[in-house]
């Protein structure tokens, strides 16, 4: 995430991001001309109040999520504003965004929305509505602000000491989110789902199975804990003074020469979140693709969805790439994928109504491409579309970039869009 932040913000050392303490403001009505969007939860609304000062007094009217309202004045209350719609009609600014919000998307109220995106070349002023400093902020750069103030009918954002930018150029960032019926974007690191430190039983797959087969000198091209693999495990256990169960537990794992900590660290690894809360849709898509590229050249390993130290299979690669961009595609998970019977997670992803399904003709960069087997017509593969009829995928023998259709898999059955 650090590299992403550095590239996106482009913050110079001269400006800095030191957060100053917020100024105390009296509850004075100030002329302010803008549009505010209700930023709450789909199918719900916020109260419209009679006054910006306590006890406020409700009007009995609610403003629906995503609706836009013309603002004529503002009153500061602590660290937020109240916005005036008309006589005795005020909106609580904690639930109002000064940038568009779609009615079918939630806005996470736990996020401190303190970032603006610059549109055009934005001059910097020493004070709100004061003198220009001669410095400016670059177009499409992102800036954290420590305070804001209304002056000259505009909102001003403090990006550093004695450095303010006007809302004509600085647009408040609202967290990107999918419509409520689809997978929701996470703004914090995704945690593993399932038992961390699971045993390897009949039918187990994934990295721990792959490493076990290799440690025992068995063929690991199909990383499945088969009957013959269990027999080999039982023989190993018998020869090393362990109960000959054929089930790989942590004690057996350590006897095979692996670090005790890796028994759980392999299971718990989730791709680090690459997108801060203020990342837009495009940034989420690029984070997903960049994560997939970090596995380029790694081996195809059936049932695997783990760190870049190893390899993945097709759905394992997609799962980790989604994690990197903030999507947790449950019931599919990195741990669940290695359990018996879950090799074909591509089928679960293809059938999920938590993605937006689009036509093949409408495919876009970042979409998931699903393929069916020519033998039984069932989904057997998933890849990430890069554009220009190219995909990144894990297909035997490794993770690679390939044409969207080739001689091995040309039967596209569906296209799903993770970020809508």
From TrEMBL:
The keyword Hydrolase applies. It holds the Pfam family PG_binding_1. It comes from the Bacteria. Residues 1-26 form the signal peptide. One of its GO terms (molecular function) is cysteine-type peptidase activity. The keyword Iron does not apply. Residues 282-420 form the NlpC/P60 domain. InterPro entries: NLP_P60_dom, Papain-like_cys_pep_sf, Peptidoglycan-bd-like, PG_Endopeptidase_C40, PGBD-like_sf, PGBDSf. Keywords: Hydrolase, Protease, Signal, Thiol protease. GO terms for biological process: proteolysis. Belongs to the peptidase C40 family. PANTHER family: NLP_P60 DOMAIN-CONTAINING PROTEIN-RELATED, PEPTIDOGLYCAN DL-ENDOPEPTIDASE CWLO. This is Periplasmic protease. It comes from Lacticaseibacillus saniviri JCM 17471 = DSM 24301.
